[in-house]
Design a protein that fits this description.
alpha+beta, eight-stranded antiparallel sheet, two-stranded parallel sheet, 24% helix, globular, disordered N terminus
């Protein structure tokens, strides 16, 4: 109980997963009977098919790769966070119709948002995203991370979201176990379009900021919400950690976010 008499869940042990790579975790979740019954088909897709053991993987409702317009599950082990694997929902904002003339090639047209992009559904239903994230935090006793990364596309000939990325705008916050939004002490948002993220104080202002970014046709965004877990190749679960297999990852993190895998 806090000093207002409200219940606050005690934080639980860090989560450990028994998988050697994002590929293993992704495929293990995709094979679950409950996942197969929820979706007609989910496709495991690597970001770099030439280095499958080292790259990030998606579970996507489409075999298209890249699957920009689809909401999908992401399994990734960022080099900047050694020993951590992020298991998240990933939804992308493409470029707006106002820049269509600059992206006339077949490759360029893939970056242009149409009405069927999941991003539009994310914005329309953002109150349910926050409800799902806060529910995950409360039910698991663990904070849920939300991250935005991306920036302006200034050169149509060189823009490629699949290419090695230059320094990007990155904004992170946490949906906490007491139902609030915990803001970062600092963020890395050099692009002037992302300065709107400095106005975020709560869930409502986060939704407003996403709407402001949506209005800029030149901005590409990756939106993520999920939980970081620990892993190590070939190692058993260490003391002081709680082991979650694919079934637990599905039930506790991914199933509540299934509405936006589309």
């Amino acid at each position: 109980m806090n000093n207002k008499g409200e219940f606050r869940m005690i934080k639980q042990l860090p989560v450990w997963v028994p998988y050697d790579s994002p590929e293993d975790a992704c495929k293990a979740v995709g094979l679950l009977p409950e996942v197969k019954s929820k979706f007609s088909k989910l496709y495991p897709l690597p970001w770099n098919r030439h280095q499958p053991r080292k790259t990030e993987w998606w579970l996507s409702p489409s075999s298209e790769n890249p699957a920009y317009k689809y909401g999908k599950y992401l399994f990734t082990a960022p080099a900047a966070r050694p020993g951590r694997m992020l298991i998240t929902l990933n939804v992308e904002k493409g470029l707006g119709p106002a820049v269509r003339d600059a992206y006339r090639s077949p490759k360029g047209r893939r970056y242009l948002m149409e009405d069927d992009w999941c991003w539009h559904h994310l914005l329309r239903s953002f109150s349910r995203v926050t409800e799902a994230a806060t529910s995950i935090a409360r039910e698991t006793g663990r904070d849920v991370e939300v991250e935005l990364s991306g920036g302006h596309s200034l050169d149509p000939d060189s823009f490629d979201p699949q290419a090695p990325k230059p320094p990007q705008n990155i904004w992170r916050a946490r949906f906490t176990t007491d139902g609030t939004l915990s803001l970062p002490d600092e963020d890395r948002c050099p692009d002037k379009a992302f300065k709107v993220m400095a106005t975020v104080k709560d869930f409502a202002s986060l939704a407003h900021a996403l709407g402001a970014l949506d209005a800029d046709p030149w901005v590409w965004i990756d939106f993520f919400v999920g939980i970081p877990v620990e892993y190590a190749t070939g190692a058993p679960c260490p003391a002081g950690r709680e082991e979650w297999d694919a079934g637990r990852l599905w039930k506790s993190i991914l199933a509540p976010l299934a509405e936006w895998v589309r």
